[in-house]
Amino acid sequence: MEQACNIKVPTKKLKKFEKEYQTLRESQLQQEDPIDRYQRENRRLQEATMRLEQENDDLAHELVTSKIALRNDLDQVEDKADVLNKELLSTKQRLVETEEEKRCQGEETAQSRRGSSFSSSSSSSSSSSPLCCSQLKEVFRRELEKAELEIKKTAAIIVEYKQICSQLSTRLEKQQAATKEELDIVRSKVMSCEHCRELFSTLGSLQVSSPGRQKSSTEPTDEEKDGLKEQLREMELELAQTKLQLVEAKCRIQELEHQRGVLMNEIQATKNSWLSKTLGSLKSSTSSSSSSMSQAPSSPKEGPA
């Protein structure tokens, strides 16, 4: 093997051998019966067509399967988004109800403070206000953590959808390139055949055969070429539909991302408003308790006077 690999053949001899092989091949083709040659080329084209049909069926089956899976996943994400919206609305409603209840409790505390002594009113305000605020904080914290967890899950699902779409588009481009290459090979084989080249132009359109040709040899070739052209059109149509479905899936993912952003903004706005209202209520309760404590020691001094 090493000696065979180390043998160096001049380029001129290689070209000479190539020319001799070409001449020998041409002489064999000329001696061969044209009908046998056409039949062999016809069988080769039929095998290529069957292989392309099988690959097309596999691609269509895979496309349908991936489309169904993607549709199911999108439905699940839509359901989760609806659940998140409902939970957010219920959280807002509970927050409003809690604030209303807190306001009512504050009014009741103020009324009871007017009817009771300053010492009892100051002690009750100092004990009830922190308890109510801590309960509100705990409820809001739980709901906020739940909403953030669902949003993280939705974001992870969206990332997975993007990866699936990119993989499908890559596989589609590869399959399209391979199909185009194979069709070019079939077309080159057709154009290399003298009989087929006379029937088809360079653009692939069918030409009218001369009346002197035998009908037995032209009719099967015309049907096969029409079948190949029809299959090519069907494959191009399926590839266009696949691209359209990928674009629709990407648009749906963008809509889900937009909904996630809107949910995040609403949660942040609700959190900010709740914090501001809580701080305001704490400040008001602190100021009222401090004013009551300052009035309590001044009342005994006014009695003896």
Automatic annotation (TrEMBL):
Residues 207-219 have a biased composition (Polar residues). Signal peptide: none annotated. Residues 137-164 form a coiled coil. Residues 116-129, 279-299 have a biased composition (Low complexity). The keyword Coiled coil applies. Keywords: Coiled coil. This is Rab GTPase-activating protein 1-like, isoform 10. The keyword Methyltransferase does not apply. Residues 99-131, 207-227, 279-305 are annotated as: Disordered. It comes from Takifugu flavidus (sansaifugu).
